Amino acid sequence: MTISKWQYHEPEHPGADFDAMAESYDQHMQRYRDIQGEIQEILGFLDLKGDQTVLEIGTGTGEFALAAASHCSRVYAVDLSAGMLKYAKKKARSRQVSNIEFQQAGFLTYQYHGPPLDAVVTQLALHHLPDFWKQIALMRVADILKDGGKLCLRDVVYSFDVKAYEDFFEEYTSKAAEKVGDEFSGRIAAHVKKEYSTLDWIMRGMLERAGLKVDRADHKDGFIGLYLCTKTRR
Fold first, then answer.
1. What pTM value is reported for the model?
2. How far is Cα 40 from Cα 24, in angstroms, rounded to an integer?
3. Domain count, the chain
4. Which pLDDT does position 23 carry in this prediction?
5. Does some domain include residue 167?
6. What is the pLDDT of residue 64?
7. Is the confidence at residue 206, as pLDDT, over 60?
8. What residues make up the domain containing 154?
9. Spatial contact of 18 and 170, defined as CB atoms under 8 Å apart
10. Would 89 be classed as within a structural domain?
């Protein structure tokens, strides 16, 4: 795929060095996320059938892809990080899971060739894109979903009262330090400072403009948003 000189270059996103942290990522995430609970929540919404197909963008170490593989015919697992994909493939081999197709790509570069997909999942990845490119990414997702297909999007999306943003971020990072430690709190502060997390009303608008109806939206602590969506006819 030829990348135009004006297109946002996804590997330059300001996040962590995921190649370096691949093998410690799961252990780190489990300190403050219920990974298996989140997976079951998504699988419950998707209600996958044995002949269906799923794409996960930003698969990371592949935990969701591996879980989904036993519920459908094929999972396409995409990530920008070669290190994450290498570790995810290692996990797939160790668990004898063979119906996952791994590919190094991002929201803006992944090329899907096949019948429309039944579902797309992305977690904690879309914030790497500025808002304009988020919209393009969601339109690309909608284009490869079948009518009635489902999208599950979980990300850092702000739903607190923006007028009180200073107090909110001070309190949120302080609580994170108390609960998990200063290193994690520092990562949150760096995320707020450098990354492209957006507001709930903007995210809802982008989903709707892409032709995705928000069936349910849940928010955690004003910081994490979960959007369960269905593609409508455009």
1. 0.92
2. 22
3. 1
4. 56
5. no
6. 95
7. yes
8. 16-159+196-231
9. no
10. yes
